[in-house]
Amino acid sequence: MSVLTVRETASAIRGGSVTARSVVENALGVMEREDGRLRAMVCVRGDEALLAADAVDERVKRGDPVGALVGVPVVVKDNICTSGVATTCSSAILRDFVPPYDAHVVERLRAADAILLGKTNLDEFAMGSSTENSATSVTLNPWDELRVPGGSSGGSAVAVAAGMAPVALGSDTGGSIRQPAAFCGTVGLKPTYGRVSRYGLVAFGSSLDQIGPLTRTVEDAAIVLGAISGYDERDSTSADRAVPDYAAGLDRPMKGLRIGVPPECFGEGLSDTVRHSVEAALDVYRGEGAEIVEVHLPHLSYAVACYYVVATAEASSNLARYDGVHYGHRAADPEDIIDLYSRTREEGFGDEVKRRIMLGTYVLSSGYYDAYYLKALKVRALIRRDFEEAFSRVDVIASPVTPTTAFALGEKTDDPLAMYLADIYTISANLAGTCAISLPCGFDGGGGSDGGGGSGGVGLPIGLQLIGSWFEEEALLAAAHGYQLLTDHHERWPSDAA
Ligand code: GLN
């Protein structure tokens, strides 16, 4: 399979050895061939993409200056607003919503001369871990089409894994970039909270949400992060800090790198195959002279409970705006305003979103606020403190991304708690606001989710998580890039799985 990386694509187009049109045609061709089955895309804007590609080719021909992502095909999770292009959040309530503006990240991508091919599927309003909670379609894992791609940015991960685009944007509130990246064998980066503007990202949990790239290589993630980061006055939590040249800072020696390993992340519930791959990855670092240091995250066991209180509380508040009056779906022939609100929401939201709204409303309600929401905020502060303590001793923290490889379609749909519990390794980075990356570190050997032995193929991908300190994306990316220089897990394609 020959799909170029972001770096290769941009440099080939800039140098005139390929045209943006041919790159875009190729990407659209892969979508056409693969997406009827995989269903990663919510919408594809082929004609507009080809026009944009021609405009880029004209400029290259004239010798005009072009951006860092010149001609690079990009797909964007469908909870990120795109001017004139429907942004549905894979929800019936926003089925016909066409934003009149671009999200900050989309403005940045266009300014860097990237080419938007379309929007990707997600769990409705980004609530879920499997992309099964989508009102649009169920997305399949390209490594095994009976398995979930992860979520909620499942469409983004599949688009990159299947070669439809070298980069996708996702959003990560509690692992939604890193977990699907792990399940689909791609890189997924959640930047530090505040690094990337949330302007135009449809809010789920505003104190947790962050946009980031899914790519095949860490280098590509660094290039895209550089393009989308930076201060934006329209997001009051956006950080007014300089944006380093992330791609230029990737080559750092592994020798002396201090990697913290929390035993709390290697306990009960972690499958042997994931454990072995992550431990083998640590051996790679050790072999290069990195120092492996035990650190502790004593409050990790409270992270799932804490997250599902904070995230649902914020979601119940953010989703109050879908009332059938402002925009989106409106129930027909309401008897009065209450009937309009309740039927609009009854008809427009799916089960998981309703569950979250009920949970969130409950934990914020008078009489329960102190016991749940306030308590969760205190636990969140303790989790943040655990990380402060750990980062006073190490440069990055290593852990698994997920307890198992991709689970079967339908396996957890009737058991929301089991679905929530599997978020254990990813959500604390959101609660603390640190940056974190998922990168391929092995395969489970075929025969299905951690089944070992079997089909003879490589099996399902496994992710290594590295967590970095606040605004230390340079160190995080360098540590991850160093691993990719020494390994080839990220060079496998789903066709190797058969
Ligand atoms: N799986 C988590 C949830 O369902 C994370 C979602 C996300 O990061 N958007 O809330």
Which helices and strands appear, and what pairs or packs with what?
Elements: H1 6-15, H2 20-38, E1 41-44, H3 46-62, E2 73-77, H4 104-111, E3 115-120, H5 154-161, E4 167-171, H6 178-184, E5 187-190, E6 211-215, H7 218-228, E7 258-261, H8 272-287, E8 291-294, H9 303-318, H10 337-348, H11 351-364, H12 370-391, E9 396-400, H13 416-421, H14 427-432, E10 435-443, E11 461-468, H15 473-486
Parallel strand pairs: 2-3, 2-4, 7-8, 7-9
Antiparallel strand pairs: 1-3, 4-6, 5-6, 5-10, 9-11, 10-11
Bound molecules: glutamine.
In short:
The chain has 498 residues and is α/β, with parallel strands linked by helices.
How would you explain this protein's 3D organization?
It is built from 15 helices and 11 strands. An 11-stranded mixed β-sheet has the order 1-3-2-4-6-5-10-11-9-7-8, sandwiched between helices. Helix 4 (104-111) links the parallel strand 2 and strand 3. The radius of gyration is 21 Å and the shape is globular. The protein has helices at 6-15, 20-38, 46-62, 104-111, 154-161, 178-184, 218-228, 272-287, 303-318, 337-348, 351-364, 370-391, 416-421, 427-432, 473-486; strands spanning 41-44, 73-77, 115-120, 167-171, 187-190, 211-215, 258-261, 291-294, 396-400, 435-443, 461-468. Helix 2 runs antiparallel to helix 3 (46-62), helix 7 (218-228) packs antiparallel against helix 15 and helix 9 packs across helix 12. The protein starts with 5 loop residues before the first helix and ends in a 12-residue tail after the last helix. The protein has 498 residues and is α/β, with parallel strands linked by helices. Bound molecules: glutamine. Residues 126-129, 152, 171-176, 204, 311, 423 line the site of glutamine.
